[in-house]
């Protein structure tokens, strides 16, 4: 279940809003132009399920989202616990960046935290299994998968070569606390 926290972009210590109420999270993000949905979890998806099995399990919602948002393709990304290069993988997404297309991700298992920098606010959305988040193109953001990432997610692409990050050079992500998935807290 997702948790939304909203901060001033100059003060990462005090949340102006913090809620895990799905209706509130959905409505608040919609006002900012961000799509958030809860999809039914499929218990038949195991750690051993291959990418095609994951896509097949969610074929209906995946195809509906592709049609509705103009996505051309979808794939599955897995980050199992205990990867030796976890710190480097985490660091690759921790700098503020944008994309020329929407970034959409549905979490099948595990989770992570997206930080969206919009209108002098930072929206922190901690996503978990069953959460879909679609961030509009050119929205400044970063993603924190935690120090020992663990998730399976379906990613959606408009371009066949996938999304390409354009880094802003702003160090805002360094000022905001990092995501600790075991506790759901920030540090």
TrEMBL record:
Cofactor(s) essential for the protein: Fe(2+); Ni(2+)
GO MF annotations in UniProt: dioxygenase activity
Site residues, May play a role in metal incorporation in vivo: 96
Entry-linked InterPro entries: ARD (IPR004313), ARD_bac (IPR023956), RmlC-like_jellyroll (IPR014710), RmlC_Cupin_sf (IPR011051)
Key words, A-Z: Amino-acid biosynthesis, Dioxygenase, Iron, Metal-binding, Methionine biosynthesis, Nickel, Oxidoreductase
Cofactor mode of binding and number, as noted: Binds 1 Fe(2+) cation per monomer.
Keyword Mitochondrion attributed: no
Protein residues bound to Fe(2+): 97, 99, 103, 141
Involved pathway(s): Amino-acid biosynthesis; L-methionine biosynthesis via salvage pathway; L-methionine from S-methyl-5-thio-alpha-D-ribose 1-phosphate: step 5/6
Site annotation May play a role in transmitting local conformational changes: residues: 102
Sections of the chain in a coiled coil: none
Pfam families documented for this protein: ARD
Family annotation (CDD domains): cupin_ARD
Catalytic activity line of the entry: 1,2-dihydroxy-5-(methylsulfanyl)pent-1-en-3-one + O2 = 4-methylsulfanyl-2-oxobutanoate + formate + 2 H(+); 1,2-dihydroxy-5-(methylsulfanyl)pent-1-en-3-one + O2 = 3-(methylsulfanyl)propanoate + CO + formate + 2 H(+)
E.C. number(s) listed in UniProt: 1.13.11.54, 1.13.11.53
Site (Important to generate the dianion): 105
Binding site for Ni(2+): 97, 99, 103, 141
Subunit structure: Monomer.
Entry function: Catalyzes 2 different reactions between oxygene and the acireductone 1,2-dihydroxy-3-keto-5-methylthiopentene (DHK-MTPene) depending upon the metal bound in the active site. Fe-containing acireductone dioxygenase (Fe-ARD) produces formate and 2-keto-4-methylthiobutyrate (KMTB), the alpha-ketoacid precursor of methionine in the methionine recycle pathway. Ni-containing acireductone dioxygenase (Ni-ARD) produces methylthiopropionate, carbon monoxide and formate, and does not lie on the methionine recycle pathway.
Family: Belongs to the acireductone dioxygenase (ARD) family.
This protein's name: Acireductone dioxygenase
Annotated source species: Azospirillum aestuarii
């Amino acid at each position: 279940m997702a948790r939304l926290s909203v901060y001033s972009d100059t003060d990462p210590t005090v949340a102006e809003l913090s809620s895990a109420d799905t209706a509130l999270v959905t409505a608040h993000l919609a006002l900012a132009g961000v799509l958030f949905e809860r999809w039914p979890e499929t218990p038949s998806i195991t750690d051993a399920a291959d990418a095609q099995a994951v896509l097949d399990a969610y074929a209906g919602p995946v195809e509906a989202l592709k049609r509705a948002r103009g996505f051309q393709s979808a794939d599955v990304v897995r980050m199992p616990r205990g990867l030796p290069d976890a710190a480097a993988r985490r660091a690759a997404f921790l700098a503020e960046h944008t994309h020329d297309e929407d970034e959409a991700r549905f979490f099948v298992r595990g989770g992570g935290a997206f930080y969206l920098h919009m209108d002098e606010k930072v929206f922190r959305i901690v996503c978990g299994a069953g959460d879909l988040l679609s961030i509009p193109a050119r929205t400044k953001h970063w993603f924190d998968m935690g120090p020992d990432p663990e998730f399976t997610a379906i990613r959606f692409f408009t371009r066949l070569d996938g999304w390409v990050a354009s880094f802003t050079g702003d160090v805002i992500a360094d000022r905001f606390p990092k995501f600790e998935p075991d506790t759901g807290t920030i540090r």
